[in-house]
Specification:
Blueprint lengths: L1 E6 L2 H9 L6 E6 L12 H10 L3 E6 L14 H15 L3 E4 L9 E7 L5 E8 L5 H5 L5 E6 L4 H18 L1 E2 H7 L1
Parallel strand pairs: 2-3, 3-4
Antiparallel strand pairs: 1-7, 2-5, 4-8, 5-6, 6-7
């Protein structure tokens, strides 16, 4: 197993590198997910490219974006984030809001074909949200990137179990927008 530590601004390059190639499945979990600028493109544009390549993309977030009294976005940043997430959903991404229990994990999980024809998993597990501030190094952040995991079946099983829990506790973005 190849493991690499990622510190502060190194996160941006790691996310860009993990999303390169031709993954078959991408999962992004974080409290906050924004359309951040990566090294080669933006997160939104890259995820939409992958969706057009028939990659399965799931995005789950925990940040509350709506003012409960008015049913409208809390602020301009929230409005931009809703627009970003709805555009992903329009392109067939599964987008989930997980408010309770609050989704606080920060994970980028990638499945892709390996050179020998089997599947390979790469993952970033980090303290950093997928926001400009966190990925550019404005915060003190630490993450671990796993390349070519030998624990594939065990890790995949754990991620699937975690995903089932997250999606079971959450609601699709479309359902949330319709109820606010």
């Amino acid at each position: 197993m190849n493991v690499e530590f990622v510190v502060n601004a190194e996160h941006r390059g790691s996310v860009d590198q993990l999303l390169a190639g031709s993954p078959t499945r991408v999962r992004v979990y974080a409290l906050n997910i924004h359309d951040v600028q990566l090294v080669k493109t933006s997160l939104k544009l890259r995820l939409i490219q992958l969706l057009k390549m028939e990659c399965e993309v799931t995005v789950a977030f925990g940040e509350s974006l709506w003012n409960r009294e008015t049913g409208k976005p809390k602020d301009e940043n929230s409005a931009q984030l809703i627009k970003f997430l709805m555009e992903l959903q329009t392109n067939n991404a599964r987008v989930w809001y997980v408010p309770n229990p609050l989704l606080h994990a920060k994970v980028l999980y990638i499945e892709e074909p390996a050179e020998d024809g089997s599947e390979s998993i790469r993952a970033l597990v980090t303290s950093a949200n997928f926001t400009e501030r966190a990925l550019c190094g404005a915060n003190f952040e630490l993450g671990v990137v796993f390349h070519d995991l030998d624990l594939y079946s065990h890790l995949k099983e754990r991620v699937e179990k975690f995903t089932d829990g997250v999606l079971g506790a959450g609601r699709s973005l479309e359902d949330v927008v319709q109820t606010v």
